[in-house]
Amino acid sequence: MTTLKQGDSAPQFSGLDQDGQPVSLKDYTGKKLVLYFYPKDDTPGCTAEACSLRDNYEQLQKAGYDVLGVSTDPVKSHKKFIDKYTLPFRLLSDTEKTVSESFGVFGLKKFMGKEYMGISRTTFLIDEKGIITEVISKVDTKKHAEQIL
Q1: Do the beta carbons of residue 79 and residue 18 sit within 8 Å?
Q2: Known active-site residue 51
Q3: pTM for the complete prediction?
Q4: Catalytic residue among 25, 33, 34, 46
């Protein structure tokens, strides 16, 4: 779905995290970032993906990565999700869909014969200068950290 590719500059973004604190791409200047988009808090696939990143968070940090998840869920939902699964990274609330649209991951989806608008599970690896180094569109939710590392 996304037209962004390796070598492109990541779109600038800002929003609120699970604590209602501002977060933007500029906060990660000088750091490598795993920016992962997922459909919905506390659903089976999204939980498996978040837990894969949680369980391998130390390895991701040793590889120089910080992690930021993005969905259209509200701040309160993100807070519950983080607390329930002890997630060590921030989640950005994109209720207006501006971040997911700028990355080209929000659009028409199909599931069980029904069409609806939503986020396509996609991860962007972004370098210290804000350049996309990899786009992972075929995410294995249970082994996502391995895909990244």
Answers
A1: yes
A2: no
A3: 0.94
A4: 46
